[in-house]
């Protein structure tokens, strides 16, 4: 709960808002012990909604987080899929709703294997593919006697979504939030002595990667306005920006078909599949511009041939797939 509150404090400082949803896996074995001796995977995903409004103190934020967590634990048997089905949020391709940020706590002692004549240990392997936009994986460390010996945090993130400088800042900010809250639990969130988040030259936060599509039409072109007007009518959203995601705004496959039909009826050649590959106004406009001028999309950069594919990640948790991680140990 303290880790959740510290992560929420850092996200608030980063400008993520005051109403935060953080996913949290739970073992799913209940509290009655009926499956204690059953081998299997029962993990369920809880969504913990954190209220950080009103500039609460660290103590108040922890109390809110505790209440939210206990309420979620009391209903931990409700499948995550049923929660999603009941709320029916926007479902962008390749993303799970409500779990852009996930905090996982591995609070069991690490398994040990005693082999005669051999030294054995457990070494975690990283897949090189981030499961969520941001996963904070926390492991309790134990000394040789089994006594608690600090924690290790691993920040795993999608490099296509977040900037590495921002994730490094977030890792430091979480640790600083824990340290500051322990020293003075009555300090308001706005006065926590956290490091300044990275910013661009114009003062905007350097956090989310929004690549500009190659060959894009001007952001206020007639084509942009035409696409945005159709999206606005189909989705029921009044204002649509050039980089707003169709599926994050509530789009789905049926609405994609309606958008394609509307634009095709207006003289554009558009398919529903194009909204999945170009889900923003800017990206779709760039694709239609290329089609109208006969310009082929830029060829992907060649992938250098390697003498062999590494059989497993290195000891630092990195592979050659672009996966970026950071470990922050403290005691």
Automatic annotation (TrEMBL):
Residues 218-292 form the Carrier domain. GO terms for molecular function: catalytic activity; phosphopantetheine binding. Residues 289-331 are annotated as: Disordered. Keywords: Phosphopantetheine, Phosphoprotein. It comes from the Bacteria. InterPro entries: ACP-like_sf (IPR036736), Condensation_dom (IPR001242), PKS_PP-bd (IPR020806), PP-bd_ACP (IPR009081), Ppantetheine_attach_site (IPR006162). Pfam families: Condensation, PP-binding. This is Putative Amino acid adenylation domain-containing protein. It comes from Streptomyces viridochromogenes Tue57.
